[in-house]
Each structure stands twice: as C-alpha cells, then as structure tokens.
Amino acid sequence: MSILKEEGPLRRWLRERQPLLKRVWSPEVVGVKGVDAAIERLKEEKKAEWRRRGYSETLISMAVSLADDWASSMASAFAPPELKESVLRHIYPKALDVADRWITKIGEAVKASLLELGHGSL
Questions:
Q1: 20 to 30 A from 3, CA-CA: which of 30, 61, 71, 105?
Q2: In this predicted model, what pLDDT tens digit does every residue of 59-83 receive, in sequence order?
Q3: What is the DSSP letter of 6?
C-alpha cells in the first residue's frame, strides 16, 4: 500500500474522536450562524488594516487568497470531510496571521525594489 493511501496518525486520531469533535465544534458551541459572518468581519478588518499600512489592492487580494487557500488546505489535510468546515472556521484567524506575515515580507521587498528604481509607493 502506498504511503499516500495509508491513514496517518493524526487522521486516525481525529476519526476515532469524531463524536467528541462533533460535540466540541457543534453549532451550539461554535455558533455556526455567526461564524461565517465573523470570518468575513475578520477579513474586512484585516483588509482595512493592510490598506492603512499602504499595501496595494493587488497585494491585499493576493494575501486574502493566501489565507483562504492556507486554511482550506490545512482543514483538508488534517480533518475528516465531515469536520472540514468546522476546522476551517476554527483556524481562519491563524490563516490571516500567515497572510499578514506574507504581505509584510512581500511589501518590504516591493518597497525596497521601488526605492531602488526611484519610486516611492506600493
């Protein structure tokens, strides 16, 4: 059997604890009705922060896309399909942290490049 087809220890641990995880991340505990709105609010707050810091809309869009992709990839990799949505909601703030580090590093590189070329803005 290929290593990619074998169930890893984390996935096995999650599968064995599905009833517990479903209780922990149930709509009653997480408040699912407000979670999507909360994620959108976090995104909008982060985008506003990045605009205040002077990043272009292109970089902001790329950072949001990175956060979305990172969170989705992590949820797919470490959660069984029936818990993916709950895990995604739980880890999205971390995804925005990853995107924030990325846009900061890219922004610094862009600023340095523009300064070398004699331009002064992103």
A1: 71
A2: 999 999 999 999 989 988 888 888 8
A3: S
Number of domains into which the chain is organized: 1
Nearest to 64 by CA among 98, 87, 36: 98
Provide the residue range defining the domain that includes 28.
Answer: 9-117
Report if pTM > 0.85.
no
Q: Give one DSSP letter per residue of 72-114, joined into a string.
A: HHHHHHHS-GGGHHHHHHHHHHHHHHHHHHHHHHHHHHHHHHH
Query: With a cut of 70, which residues of the chain have pLDDT below it?
Result: 1-7, 18-35, 119-122
Residue 118 DSSP one-character state: T
2 is a domain residue: no
